[in-house]
Amino acid sequence: MKKFIPVALVAVALAVGAGVYLNTGTSAAPASTFVLLDGSKKSTEDLKGKVTLVNFWATSCVTCVAEMPKVIATYDKYKGQGYDTLAVAMSYDPPAYVVNFAETRKLPFKVAIDNTGAVAEAWGDVKLTPTTYVVNKRGEIVKRYVGEPDFAELHKLIEKLLAEA
């Protein structure tokens, strides 16, 4: 019996962790202030009314750099339908690198720098990049991807969310 209790506790902890990790339900997006490259600020409240992709990334992340053209294409495809993208650079990413990347790649959406790491912490203590959240029009997180999303699946989800009232 004594061996069973620790195993059961580990199983419960893993199940809870998996529930957080594989977030498929909805939860309110955490209250955050995003500092954009131009120095202006956006808050989580500002996301309401649109379906928004919040992408935590870094210029040093090979997968992030590789997926960025698909993130741009997704933005371009849906931006006229009430869709937005917010790319949040991690705190360890040098601001000059982020600005250079955004300018040379002509990123068409808003880019924020999480200088203190507070935004990544608020959004589930994001450590791995890319980590991408899909936020519905009500400001609720409906999906979290760690690693590059399956873009065909992501597009179906965006279309479903855009169709909602």
TrEMBL record:
This is TlpA disulfide reductase family protein. Transmembrane segments: none annotated. Keywords: Signal. Residues 1-18 form the signal peptide. PANTHER family: CHROMOSOME UNDETERMINED SCAFFOLD_47, WHOLE GENOME SHOTGUN SEQUENCE, THIOL:DISULFIDE INTERCHANGE PROTEIN DSBE. Residues 22-163 form the Thioredoxin domain. Pfam families: Redoxin. InterPro entries: Redoxin, Thioredoxin-like_sf, Thioredoxin_domain, Thioredoxin_ResA/DsbE_sf. It comes from Variovorax ureilyticus.
